[in-house]
TrEMBL record:
Name of the featured protein: Putative histone transcription regulator protein
Origin species: Botryosphaeria parva (strain UCR-NP2)
Lineage of the species this protein comes from: Eukaryota, Fungi, Dikarya, Ascomycota, Pezizomycotina
Swiss-Prot/TrEMBL GO biological process terms: chromatin remodeling; DNA-templated transcription
One Gene Ontology term of the molecular function aspect: nucleosome binding
Keyword Nucleus: yes
């Protein structure tokens, strides 16, 4: 493993840099999107990141900086087909961006922002939450986008039309994490009600409506054992499905009094492995 930490890879503020709450690499590996407390989604060149130690590298580092939220952005995710970028924030809104081949029309005159290289424009603003949006997830075929938030809602959006297909009210407290099954059969949501809930789905047709989805996205099972003593003070509960689809790495679990990441097995949905090493609660993890 090679760790790179460029000094310029930040969300700068007047007195200090803003906290970064989410990052995601595009499917082609060429871009890194970051989201932070400055209300910006920033898109970076991964080539520039990997060449950060090369003094002769002169290509642009930041490809775009978009600010379409009125508050802190908690989540940013590329769709699996690489066509869209979605962000969710404490303004209760989910924004969906698309890369426009036309050059950016507005100027950065009078701001400290670098001139944009790419034109990521807002395609849709999705209104469906009554409180902060904490996490986002795309199905592997990009047919649906799911947002979760502090209103305890799980909202399913069409990945084609971005119309709301279903609002799920199965959780009893804040929902702080969402992950998709690589086999495109399930998604899992993690909540402060100390559960992970699994939902079974079939990919909706491009023209599917909320009426068509009435019997889709059905609750499959609830996982409770690893989280019975989990603290309620974490900002996120971001779980992650393994690439082979056989396991879920579940954050903010406990093994006795010790914080851990629980490995949940597909099918039985039970956990017999705990990853222990952090002194405090684990809020997120990702597996490749």
């Amino acid at each position: 493993m090679h760790i790179v930490k460029p000094v310029w890879l930040t969300h700068p503020g007047e007195l200090k840099d803003f906290e970064v709450y989410s990052c995601h690499v595009s499917p082609d590996g060429n871009r890194l999107a970051t989201a932070a407390g400055d209300g910006h989604v920033r898109v970076w060149s991964t080539e520039a990141i990997l060449n950060s130690a090369n003094p002769d590298y002169k290509k642009p580092r930041q490809l775009a900086a978009v600010s379409n939220h009125s508050g802190t952005i908690h989540a940013v995710r590329f769709s699996g087909n690489g066509k869209y970028l979605a962000s969710g924030a404490d303004d209760r809104v989910v924004c969906v961006y698309v890369l426009d081949p036309n050059p950016v029309s507005h100027s950065t005159f009078g701001s400290n922002e670098e001139p944009p290289v790419e034109n990521w424009r807002v395609l849709r603003r999705l209104i469906g939450h009554d409180n902060d949006v904490q996490d986002l997830g795309w199905s592997y075929d990009s047919s649906i986008l799911v947002s979760v938030g502090l209103d305890s809602k799980v909202v399913v959006w069409s990945g084609h039309t971005f119309e709301k297909l279903k609002t799920i009210n199965s959780h009893q407290s804040h929902v702080k994490g969402i992950t998709f099954d690589p086999a495109n059969k399930y998604f899992a949501t993690a909540s402060d009600d100390r559960t992970i809930k699994l939902f079974r789905f079939t990919s909706p047709a491009p023209n599917a409506t909320a009426q068509d989805s009435a019997n889709n996205f059905m609750h499959e099972t609830t996982i409770t054992n690893p989280f019975m003593l989990s603290p309620l003070t974490t900002y996120f509960r971001r779980c992650s499905w393994s690439p082979d689809g056989n396991h879920i790495a579940a954050a903010n679990a406990t093994n006795g009094p010790v914080s851990s990441v629980a490995i949940v097995n597909r099918g039985s949905w039970e956990s017999d492995i705990n990853l222990i090493g952090h002194e405090g609660p684990v809020e997120g993890r990702i597996r490749h």
